[in-house]
Write a structure and sequence with these properties.
Elements: H1 6-32, H2 35-61
């Protein structure tokens, strides 16, 4: 079984959060018309979703389905 190191999962988590948070900021800014409110929403979203994504990634790493040797 090929296992993914925690450091790799963490790096993927961080780079994905940056990308997704920029998306959240833009959407929130467009909807609210306020870049300050958009930024506040994006900051809160970073703090919650980075944790959720990391846990999600580690759980999936334990599932062998779809992995190749």
């Amino acid at each position: 079984m090929i296992d993914e190191k925690i450091s790799r999962s963490l790096a993927k988590t961080i780079t994905w959060r940056i990308t997704a948070s920029i998306d959240t900021f833009i959407i929130a800014w467009v909807i609210t018309g306020s870049w300050q409110l958009g930024g506040s929403i994006a900051i809160i979203e970073v703090l919650t979703k980075i944790i959720f994504y990391y846990v999600h990634e580690r759980v999936w790493n334990k599932i062998n389905w779809g992995k190749r040797r």
